[in-house]
Amino acid sequence: MAATFERVHTVTDYWDGPREGVADFRGAPHVYRSVWRHEADDWDDDRYFLSPIASEEAALAFEDWAIWRRFAEHYRGRVAPAAESLGDWGALPEDLSRHRELRHLLTPILSLNRSRCIVARAEFRSVGPPQRTGLSCLIWRCGGQSLRRSPTTSFCRRLPSNEALQQTAAASSLVE
């Protein structure tokens, strides 16, 4: 059975393509995270860890994504001011309190549940014209398979540099 395209709701990490966020897989929300290949010291081009999350948990991620989108729209084409702390970046002053609360609630939710995790090959596509904000909708299709971890495949990755964070911010604005 061929996989169908499904909605990508958030892209919270981007490096040469989506690396982390929330997307539907077989009709249910899942956290996705790109596989890190230690032997290559790079992301896998198309393999992602997937872990299901509850609809209520996904709603929190969508709310935080809406905060990011308001921030991205406000500063589109302009330089955003430096945040007091890295976790505060991506929220307008009026959204900062709720953003902090959501980040606290989302940290355990967006951590991959290794006991329920699968690996899938995925293909991302932009669809439709850019919205009013200039952002496009992103969809993906993927086929799941059993998780077979090797010593060179990991959930771990390097901490992003400031340049990587800026690239993430710029690229995230490509997604609805």
Describe what this molecule looks like in 3D.
The chain starts with 5 loop residues before the first strand and ends with a helix. The radius of gyration is 16 Å and the shape is globular. The longest helix has 20 residues, at 55-74. Helix 1 crosses helix 2. It has one domain (6-172). The chain has a six-stranded antiparallel barrel. The protein contains three helices and seven strands. It is of the alpha+beta class. A hairpin with a 3-residue loop joins strand 1 and strand 2. The chain has helices at 55-74, 96-109, 162-172; strands at 6-14, 18-25, 28-37, 42-52, 118-127, 137-145, 153-154.
Give me the secondary-structure topology.
Elements: E1 6-14, E2 18-25, E3 28-37, E4 42-52, H1 55-74, H2 96-109, E5 118-127, E6 137-145, E7 153-154, H3 162-172
Antiparallel strand pairs: 1-2, 1-6, 2-3, 3-4, 3-7, 4-5, 5-6
Helix pairs in contact: 1-2
Largest sheet: 6 strands, antiparallel, barrel
> Which structural class best describes the helix and strand composition?
alpha+beta
Radius of gyration: 16 Å
Distance between the termini: 28 Å
Give start-end ranges of low-pLDDT stretches: 146-176
What is the spatial order of strands in the main beta sheet? 1-2-3-4-5-6
Tally of domains: 1
- Strand % is 25-35%
The backbone outline, from C-alpha atoms, is globular
N-to-C SSE series? Answer: EEEEHHEEEH
Q: Would you tell me the overall average pLDDT? A: 77
- Helicity level, as a percent range? 25-40%
